[in-house]
Amino acid sequence: MKPGAQSSPSIVSQRGVSPLLEFRILGPVEVLNDGEEVPLDGSKPRTVLAALLLADNGTVSDSEMSDFLWGHHPPATFNAQIYTYVSRLRKTLLHEVGITRRSRGYDIRLGNCRFDLWEFEEQARLGQNALAAGRYEESAGLLRSALSSWRGPALSGVSEHLTDAEGPRLEEARIAVLESRIEADLALGRHAQLLPELTRLVRQHPLQERFRAQLMTTFYRCNRQADALVLYEEGRRMLADELGIDPGSLLRQVHLAILTADPVLQVPHALRVGVG
């Protein structure tokens, strides 16, 4: 049976073996069956599925699910409606994926299925460990692989209530990995290649101090010390005007290093051979 043949199709392997199910929330929320999308019938079932996935093997209570679906104005029949959405998901997903009723809530068990958030987090963890150990090439590759799991803004296609509740922490995790990937690339002497990307990122995230510090370092290495100092001053004024605070220690350290031509801003000596 192919997806779309009926309103709540069951997943059926085309090869007579257990198909590979893949759950994805780092972009549009979707389920893939051997690479083919499984219909989920609208934003409400997607919201229920995403909420269960984000619970990380924990239980989502009926009240929490109601908040994710309807915010502060649930219908009188919210329990029955949640039950209906869960029932539809059970019919759509293979029996290997268990959605279980717990005390006033539900949880999901994915078994051997793939989940893009888990894969992102694992690649990110390995990449961060490699960065801390000074294995920059390995780190850059792992962190780039982690970021490739993202297909757009996380949780697309679910309710705004779930997006507002869970979206910021997912985006913060993505930004942290991106900052670390750039750190690894800077350690590898790729400052010239990073200049356009970092310029765009500072424009998009003007209060993100690590991006600004990385762009200041990139300007310095590209013999554009004046641009680096102007960038610092712009950030200092913005932080003062919008938040009433001074630059953090990272920005201050990079600023001082530029003023004193500190060798710490240069590419590590062992990596300079072949750097363009």
Question: Can you describe this structure?
Answer:
This protein is α+β, with helices and mostly antiparallel strands and 276 residues long. Among the domains are: 21-114, Arc Repressor Mutant, subunit A (Orthogonal Bundle), CATH 1.10.10; 190-275, Serine Threonine Protein Phosphatase 5, Tetratricopeptide repeat (Alpha Horseshoe). 54% of the residues lie in helices and 9% in strands. The protein has 10 helices and 7 strands. The chain has helices at 43-54, 62-70, 78-92, 116-132, 136-147, 160-187, 191-204, 209-221, 225-243, 249-259, and strands at 21-24, 30-33, 36-38, 60-61, 98-102, 105-109, 114-115. The protein has a 4-stranded mixed beta sheet. A 3-stranded antiparallel beta sheet has the order 4-6-5. A hairpin with a 2-residue loop joins strand 2 (30-33) and strand 3. Helix 1 packs across helix 3, helix 4 packs parallel to helix 6 (160-187) and helix 5 (136-147) runs antiparallel to helix 6 (160-187). The termini are far apart. The model is unreliable at 1-17 and 272-276 (pLDDT under 50).
Features:
single chain, 276 residues, Serine Threonine Protein Phosphatase 5, Tetratricopeptide repeat, 4-stranded mixed sheet, 3-stranded antiparallel sheet, 54% helix, disordered N terminus, disordered C terminus, DNA-binding
In short:
With 276 residues, the protein is an alpha+beta fold.
Ordered list of secondary-structure elements with their pairings:
Blueprint: E1 21-24, E2 30-33, E3 36-38, H1 43-54, E4 60-61, H2 62-70, H3 78-92, E5 98-102, E6 105-109, E7 114-115, H4 116-132, H5 136-147, H6 160-187, H7 191-204, H8 209-221, H9 225-243, H10 249-259
Parallel strand pairs: 1-7
Antiparallel strand pairs: 1-2, 2-3, 4-6, 5-6
Helix pairs in contact: 1-3, 2-6, 4-5, 4-6, 5-6, 6-8, 7-8, 8-9, 8-10, 9-10
